[in-house]
Write a structure and sequence with these properties.
2 copies of one chain form a homodimer. By secondary structure, chain A is mainly α. In chain A, α1 crosses α2, α4 crosses α6 and α5 packs antiparallel against α9. The longest helix of chain A has 25 residues. The first copy, chain A, starts with 11 loop residues before the first helix and ends with a helix. Chains A and B meet through α6, α8 and α9 of A and α6, α8 and α9 of B. Chain B binds a DNA duplex through α3.
Chain lengths: ~200, ~200
DNA sequence: AGCTACATACCAACCGGTCGGTATTGACGG
DNA sequence: CCGTCAATACCGACCGGTTGGTATGTAGCT
C-alpha cells in the first residue's frame, strides 16, 4: 500500500486546488471561505494550511497555471519568425484553445485580475502585460508595414481578442456543439478579415 | 439655512452610492465592507441602513443605472428600422460611449455579473441577455440575408464587441488622448470591416 | 527518535445588520 | 408668531455568526 489512508489516487494538494478552483470560479475568491474549500476537498483546515501558507496562495497557483503555458507558447510562436497573419492566427488559436482547456482556472483568475497587487502577483501581472504588449506590437508593426489595415488601433483590436477569451467561460461548453478549435478559427478569421480589408 | 449640517450639497444617499461605487470597482463587492463604504462616504452604518435595506441594494442600484440606459437606447435604435450596418454601428457607439461614461459603475457591475442570482438581479440579468440576443439576432439575420459575411458566428462577433466594453475600464482614461467616441468609431469600423469582407 | 501528513480545537478580528436614541424638519392649530 | 407633534435623517453602540489563521496532537513511515 503505497499510501497511508483512503487516498483516492488524487493527491490531497491537487484535490484542494481543484476544489478551490471550482468554488472561486463559481462564487469568486472573496465570497469563498477556506472552510468551503476544505469541505469540498474532503480535508480539514489544518490540512490545507499544511500545503498552503495562505488562502491567497491558492489563487496565485491558478494564476501561474493559467499564464505560464500561454507565455511559453507565445515565445515559441514568436520565435518562428513567420509573417504577421500566421503569427496572429497562431496566437489566437493558442489562447482560445488554452483558455477553453482551463476554463475554471481562467474564470477564477480573470475575475480577480484587477484586484490583486500583493507583490507576488505583480510579477505575474507584468508578464501578462508583456503578452498583451506583444500582440499589440505585432499588429502595430504590420499596420506600419502596410500588411494590416489601420482600420482600428492595436489596442481596440487586441481587446477584441482578449475580450473573447475573458468571456469564454460564460458561454463556452466543452460538451457543446462547437469545439474550442472552431471558435479559435472563427475568431481568427473574423479578426484577420477586419485587418486585411482595404483601408 | 436650508439644511441642518455641513451638507456639501451632495446628498447623503448619493454620496454613499458614489463611495460604494468606487470601492466596489477597486476591490470588488465581497472584499469591500460596509464599514469602508460609510467611512469614505463620511456617514455611519446607521445612516447607510437608513437609505438601503442591505449591502446588496447598493450593487443592484448600480446594476440598474448601468443597464437601464443601455436597454432604452437599444429599443430606440431598433425602432428606427434602419439597415443592419447602421443599426450595429449605432449600438456599438451607444454601448462604448455609455460604458465609458459610467466606467466605475460598469467595472463594479461587470465583475459581479456572474455571481449574483438573488431574485431581484435575475430580472436585470434577463434584460441583459435580451440585449445580447438582440445583437446576435441582428448579425444572424444580416448574415442569412447575405448583407454580412458568415466569416464568424454571431456569438463570436458579439463577444468581440462586449469583450471590449467589459474590459474598457482597465485601459480607458477619460482624460487620455483618445475619447470614447473615437474608440467606438474604431471598434465599429473594425467589426464592420470583418463583417463586410467577402466570404 | 524524528519527520511528514494530516486532524482537532480554538482564537481574535471582523462581518453584515439591528436598535434605541437624538437632532432637525415641515405641517398645523391657535 | 409660537407651541406641538409626527416624521425624517442620522448616529453609535452592539449582536450573533463567520472569517482567515494557528497551536497542538497524533498516526504512520523511515
Amino acid at each position: 500500500m503505497g499510501r497511508s489512508k483512503a487516498e483516492g489516487g488524487a493527491g490531497v494538494r491537487t484535490r484542494i486546488l481543484a476544489a478551490a478552483c471550482d468554488l472561486f470560479a463559481e462564487q469568486g475568491y472573496d465570497a469563498t471561505s477556506v472552510q468551503q474549500v476544505v469541505d469540498r476537498a474532503g480535508v480539514t483546515k489544518g490540512g490545507l494550511y499544511h500545503y498552503f501558507g495562505a488562502k491567497e496562495d491558492l489563487l496565485v497557483e491558478m494564476y501561474r497555471a493559467v499564464f505560464s503555458e500561454r507565455l511559453a507558447a507565445l515565445d515559441t510562436i514568436l520565435a518562428q519568425g513567420r509573417d504577421p497573419e500566421w503569427t496572429l492566427r497562431a496566437i489566437i488559436d493558442d489562447i482560445v484553445v488554452g483558455t477553453a482547456a482551463m476554463r475554471r482556472e481562467s474564470a477564477a483568475v480573470s475575475r480577480e485580475l484587477a484586484t490583486m497587487d500583493s507583490g507576488r502577483t505583480q510579477r505575474l501581472q507584468a508578464d501578462w502585460r508583456r503578452y498583451q504588449e506583444a500582440v499589440r506590437g505585432l499588429i502595430r508593426q504590420a499596420q506600419q508595414d502596410g500588411v494590416f489595415s489601420p482600420v482600428a488601433s492595436p489596442e481596440v483590436v487586441s481587446w477584441s481578442i482578449f475580450g473573447v477569451t475573458n468571456s469564454l467561460h460564460t458561454w463556452f461548453r466543452p460538451d457543446g456543439p462547437k469545439p474550442a478549435e472552431m471558435i479559435a478559427r472563427e475568431l481568427a478569421d473574423f479578426v484577420l478579415a477586419g485587418l486585411k480589408a482595404p483601408a
